[in-house]
């Protein structure tokens, strides 16, 4: 029969599970994901030279697109659909309340892109209830639920040739279990074989066009009923029982008389009767849902009374149920619905009625419409089901009055309380767990038949009880057969689902219960969760018997052209035969197809196949390079390279070293290759990713996600601590985490990826990502970030800690705290200080203070081992060519102890004579500043003495005399920041005391050598942690710190008054740095910030309406995120400060000439003015002489002698000593 025979047979509708769902959205043409840019920061850094950012981070991004954030990856089991920003980071497009395990792009036969189908164990996606599966529309970025399934989807295959999405997992839908199809725009369709009897984990399409299913199933169709049906008794005794038209006769009016009464004895307190000659009803309302298979009724014969006809109505569907039964008079099968008969024969103890349709309900009502004698009544009632459940609320389990020796039960420890069912299927237990208490529930089912079972645990949704923010994970353990070795592997289940869900926790053999053994499942909170008050819920555990006689074993080949499946065809399929050869109790976990070869990975071991094999047209064969010695859980085929992950550690034949849980198989050469030395734990997913690693050309890298904590050491590469995520770079034959390359920082989980036919890709998982993979420090231009040429290693505390690493005080910090550019004498040295470990150019470790010599091809050096590696450098300053570095610094230099401060010669790269050690209970130098035009180095921090000199909070070290001096007197406390407003005026911020009064800012007059409190200092609400000038002469200031109530404050001093900007920060904000920067474009006028300036705020910031950021720009009215950071410990990082080559933060308007040109021009102007002045003087003198009658002297020779003869000597010399008048008179005479 043709393909259309089961997809859309002529003359009849296909076997579809019809859904009232608008599918019009699928017909829209989906486009690639687009992103909205945010306004540019417009920083003008041109006057500052080189600019750096220092902090505690492992990745950093500039805020450029809406949707960027500092959120770490989720650790509560929830994942998202992800897309990539143009800058390389990832955006969450739609979040699920649990994991996403599969995605595929659904394109129909006519080429229409319908959207991306998403599958997993979620109950909500994008805020919409979507149990297990949904469609993502890439045009609208909206989620379209695909209702109809209940359970978990593990595998998807979008087949364009048939316009069909094949869906596999552990679920129920329509008349199918574990496999179903979504067809075109029509909706769900039952496959011809109605699914499988156990979960499906992988689906692929073979070269012949057939669909290959892999999993842990053994037959087609639904699950198997037990050998003895109707053996589980539904507990009616704990229900709310009511009746109408009951008799008023004492002992016969109570409708509960007939509950747990199976002896059929009439009498008071044993029988319930209706009033005489009236119809009536009996109703039971349960606290849980159930699906009954059989009803048993005992008729009464009290005083000739009895029920003749009745009907059963189920709620909440309000439907009258159909039954089959054996007519006691004819012993023939019969059926009934609205008027079911009961016999009045006293020899018939009870009658059984079997439900025709299996319908879920939580209450029912029996309406008696006809009766024997004077009225109706009953002596007993029981309900039975095939479903095997153990409830956390023990009264929901099988009734004790049924005298079942191994009845289902539960035992609890801890502060459990009963929660109402609300939108859930039943009431459940809930508990609030703190560090001082614990809780557990032990479930014991009534297993009457040994066999293979699928065990599911059911979890109520968190939205109905408003506990989503406090839900975490629980640990599930259990024992399924007698013997100490039969405990199954502990399983972690997240309870963060928005709506009800179930998770498979065990699949395999379970021994029937007996007086000597009971199967058990234990639920308890997982350890190590960062939840102060964790909400834990416990509802029920279900056990489903699985058939083992279906002719299949974990692999099934389906021909879409066949509308009817014959088990006789199994023997003709190379795939089905390969599955049957794997043995019992095994499973197939993953499938991958390349050409006419399909690779099969899983957990199986025979004399021929171990955990991996390949199937071609000629049959199944082992891989030529050898099988693997452990389970294969995931595979990804990239060209001719098959990447494999699991629990293996080598091939079964002893292949290459280093095949630890990950490996690559060359399908063209049939050889295994190690990926370094692998990882130290289970790998669960492999996803490709495009990254710029070695150049600006993207290349494919391979990501591995799983339960591992280390990338193992190999070659010259040390082991690296990770959080279950590693990236292999094929072009470099190394892990990305080992490469000192400039690329995107990624951490978290990737579980699936899909290429979009419209371009681009979507991913599934939970990631924290940053534009640049850099640790602790980066260089900043106006719009880009670049790494410094040094490798700073993430500290072990960053990796292992699950607590936030956002620093809260200067004394409790890690990463790079401070930086400095040293350029004296044409040198180019970048200095970074903090608490970190870096790698020197010679391969050795450098602790806490590093030098990058740009004049000597970026040679990286340190200061040696004389300073303790526990030190933290918090402040740097250069005086002449000597570096002064302070912090919580200890060590021994030149046989002398240092504490708080060191000096280091940058020319010779050696320690100079050290300042005497600072003294105090917790010595810390928080700020260093050189007094302008002097050699005096001022140091601020937490100390009481400098050497033997009493000198608290602020002290000066004179480089000319190499000794400490106390600046002024009466200052104490802790100084955090220093700022010179002029050569004689120092401003100090901190938690200070002056003359025994607490202040936040003090002024020091270096000429008068005295301290004064800053003007209006009492307006500042707490200690000042950072400060910067607000204008060029520092007559205006910006300060920030923590108020006494713990909140962050930011204030401006306008020259006369302190002004607060208001409560613009959220709780937990820690401001560590401030700096005014000029802009290339003006913003709106503000009372706080000039139109051509912005205030950069660094630290760990909580911006209301946005979230966490590490740097923000304040224009006087609004905060705009500027920089976002991340860390390997899965928390947002922080920025401590911006540091620059030049301190020209307030340049004059316009662009001046270079200093040399200015000097030359000034010299030329001066020379010109001098020349003009000389010429003017000469001219003026000539004019004066002419006015006074001066005449040119005769030049003829004859005149000389005559002239001389006319002046007698006495007249010539007689004028000497006369006044000018006399001289003039003499002149006249001449």
UniProtKB/TrEMBL annotation:
Recorded GO cellular component terms are: plasma membrane of growing cell tip
- Give UniProt keywords alphabetically: Membrane, Transmembrane, Transmembrane helix
Stretches assigned to the Rax2-like third domain = 389-546
Q: Output this protein's name.
A: Cellular morphogenesis protein
Rax2-like second domain residues = 229-378
* Transmembrane regions listed in the UniProt entry: 1153-1180
What region holds the Rax2-like C-terminal domain?
901-1146
Record SUPFAM superfamilies:
Galactose oxidase, central domain
């Amino acid at each position: 029969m043709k393909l259309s025979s089961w997809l859309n047979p002529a003359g009849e509708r296909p076997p579809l599970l019809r859904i009232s769902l608008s599918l019009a959205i699928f017909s829209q043409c989906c486009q690639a994901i687009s992103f909205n840019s945010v306004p540019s920061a417009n920083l003008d850094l041109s006057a500052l030279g080189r600019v750096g950012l220092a902090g505690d981070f492992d990745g950093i991004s500039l805020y450029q697109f809406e949707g960027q954030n500092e959120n770490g990856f989720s650790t509560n089991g929830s994942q998202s659909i992800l897309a990539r920003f143009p800058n390389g980071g990832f955006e969450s497009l739609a979040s699920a309340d649990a994991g996403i395990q599969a995605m595929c792009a659904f394109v129909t036969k006519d080429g229409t892109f319908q959207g991306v189908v998403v599958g997993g164990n979620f109950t909500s996606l994008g805020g919409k209830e979507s149990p297990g599966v949904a469609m993502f529309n890439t045009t609208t970025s909206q989620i379209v639920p695909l209702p109809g399934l209940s359970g978990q989807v593990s595998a998807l295959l979008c087949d364009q040739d048939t316009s069909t999405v094949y869906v596999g997992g552990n679920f129920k839908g329509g008349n199918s279990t574990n496999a179903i199809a979504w067809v075109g725009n029509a909706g769900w369709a039952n496959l011809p074989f109605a699914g499988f009897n156990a979960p499906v984990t992988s689906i692929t399409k073979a070269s012949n066009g057939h669909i290959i299913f892999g999993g842990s199933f053994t037959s087609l169709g639904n699950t198997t009923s037990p050998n003895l049906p109707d053996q589980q008794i539904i507990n009616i005794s704990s229900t709310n029982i009511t009746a109408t038209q009951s008799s008023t006769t004492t002992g016969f009016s109570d409708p509960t008389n007939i509950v747990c009464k199976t002896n059929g004895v009439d009498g008071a307190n044993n029988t319930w009767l209706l009033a005489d000659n009236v119809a009536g009803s009996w109703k039971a309302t349960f606290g849980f849902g159930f699906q009954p298979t059989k009803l048993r009724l005992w008729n009464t014969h009290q005083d000739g009374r009895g029920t003749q006809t009745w009907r059963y109505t189920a709620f909440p569907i309000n439907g009258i149920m159909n039954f089959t039964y054996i007519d006691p008079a004819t012993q023939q099968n019969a059926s009934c619905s609205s008027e079911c008969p009961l016999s009045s024969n006293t020899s018939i103890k009870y009658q059984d009625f079997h439900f025709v349709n299996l319908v879920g309900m939580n209450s029912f009502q029996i309406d008696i419409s006809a009766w024997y004698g004077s009225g109706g009544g009953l002596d007993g009632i029981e309900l039975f089901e095939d479903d095997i459940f153990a409830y956390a609320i023990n009264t929901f389990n099988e009734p004790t009055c049924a005298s079942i020796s191994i009845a289902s039960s539960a035992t609890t420890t801890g502060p459990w309380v009963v929660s109402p069912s609300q939108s859930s299927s039943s009431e459940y237990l809930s508990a609030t767990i703190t560090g001082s208490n614990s809780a557990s529930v032990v479930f014991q089912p009534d297993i009457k038949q040994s066999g293979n079972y699928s065990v599911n645990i059911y979890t109520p949704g968190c939205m109905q009880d408003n506990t989503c923010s406090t839900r975490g994970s629980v640990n599930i353990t259990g024992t399924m057969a007698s013997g100490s070795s039969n405990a199954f592997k502990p399983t972690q289940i997240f309870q963060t689902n928005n709506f009800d869900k179930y998770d498979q926790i065990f699949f395999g053999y379970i021994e029937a219960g007996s007086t000597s053994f009971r199967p058990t499942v234990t639920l308890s909170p997982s350890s190590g969760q960062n939840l102060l008050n964790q909400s834990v819920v416990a509802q029920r555990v279900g056990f489903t018997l699985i058939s083992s006689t279906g002719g299949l074993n974990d692999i099934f080949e389906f021909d879409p052209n066949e509308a009817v499946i014959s088990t006789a065809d199994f023997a003709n399929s190379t795939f089905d035969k390969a599955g049957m050869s794997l043995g019992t109790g095994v499973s197939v976990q993953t499938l991958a197809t390349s050409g006419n070869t399909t690779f099969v990975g899983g957990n199986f071991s025979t004399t021929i196949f171990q955990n991996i094999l390949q199937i071609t047209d000629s049959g199944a064969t082992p891989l030529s390079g050898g099988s693997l010695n452990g389970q294969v859980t995931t595979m990804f085929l990239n060209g001719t390279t098959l990447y494999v992950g699991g629990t293996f550690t080598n091939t079964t034949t002893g292949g290459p070293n280093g095949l630890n849980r990950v490996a690559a198989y060359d399908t063209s050469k049939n050889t295994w290759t190690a990926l370094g030395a692998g990882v130290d734990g289970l790998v669960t997913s492999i996803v490709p990713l495009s990254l710029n690693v070695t150049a600006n050309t993207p290349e494919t890298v391979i990501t591995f996600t799983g339960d591992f904590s280390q990338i193992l050491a190999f070659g010259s590469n040390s082991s690296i601590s990770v959080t279950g995520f590693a990236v292999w770079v094929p072009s470099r034959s190394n892990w990305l985490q080992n490469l000192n390359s400039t690329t995107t920082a990624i951490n978290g989980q990737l579980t699936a990826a899909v290429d979009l036919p419209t371009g681009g890709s979507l991913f599934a998982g939970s990631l924290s990502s940053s534009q640049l993979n850099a640790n602790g420090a980066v260089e900043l231009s106006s719009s880009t970030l670049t790494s410094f040429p040094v490798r700073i290693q993430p500290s072990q505390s960053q990796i292992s800690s699950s607590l936030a690493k956002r620093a809260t005080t200067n004394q409790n910090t890690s990463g790079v705290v401070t930086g400095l550019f040293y350029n004296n004498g044409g040198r180019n040295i970048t200095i970074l200080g903090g608490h970190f470990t870096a790698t020197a150019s010679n391969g050795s470790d450098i602790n806490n203070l590093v030098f990058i010599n740009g004049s000597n091809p970026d040679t990286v050096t340190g200061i040696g081992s004389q300073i303790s590696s526990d030190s933290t450098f918090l402040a740097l300053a250069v005086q002449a060519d000597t570096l002064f570095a302070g912090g919580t610094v200890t060590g021994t230099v030149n046989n002398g102890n240092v504490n708080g401060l060191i000096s280091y010669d940058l020319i010779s790269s050696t320690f100079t004579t050290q300042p005497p050690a600072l003294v105090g209970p917790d010595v810390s130098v928080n700020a260093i500043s050189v007094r302008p035009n002097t050699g005096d180095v001022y140091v601020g921090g937490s100390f009481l003495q400098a050497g033997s000199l009493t000198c608290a909070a602020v002290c000066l070290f004179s480089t000319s005399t190499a000794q400490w001096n106390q600046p002024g007197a009466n200052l104490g406390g802790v100084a955090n920041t220093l700022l010179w407003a002029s050569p004689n005026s120092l401003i100090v911020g901190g938690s200070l005391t002056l003359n025994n009064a607490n202040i936040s800012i003090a002024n020091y007059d270096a000429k008068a050598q005295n301290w004064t409190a800053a003007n209006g200092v009492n307006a500042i609400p707490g200690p000042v942690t950072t400060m910067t000038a607000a204008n060029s002469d520092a007559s205006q200031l910006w300060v920030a710190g923590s108020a006494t109530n713990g909140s962050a404050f930011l204030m401006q001093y306008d020259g006369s008054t302190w002004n607060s900007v208001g409560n613009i920060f959220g709780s937990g904000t820690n401001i560590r740095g401030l700096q005014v920067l000029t802009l290339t474009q003006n913003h709106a006028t503000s009372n706080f910030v000039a139109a051509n300036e912005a205030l950069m705020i660094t630290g760990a910031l909580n911006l209301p309406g946005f979230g966490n950021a590490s740097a923000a720009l304040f224009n006087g009215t609004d905060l705009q995120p500027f920089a976002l950071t991340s860390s390997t410990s899965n928390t947002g990082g922080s920025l401590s400060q911006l540091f620059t080559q030049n301190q020209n933060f307030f340049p004059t308007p316009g662009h001046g000439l270079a200093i040399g040109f200015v000097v030359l021009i000034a010299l030329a102007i001066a020379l010109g003015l001098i020349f003009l002045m000389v010429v003017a003087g000469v001219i003026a003198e000539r004019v004066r002489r002419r006015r006074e009658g001066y005449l040119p002297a005769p030049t003829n020779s004859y005149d000389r002698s005559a002239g001389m003869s006319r002046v007698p000597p006495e007249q010539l010399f007689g004028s000497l000593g006369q006044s000018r008048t006399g001289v003039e008179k003499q002149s006249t005479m001449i």
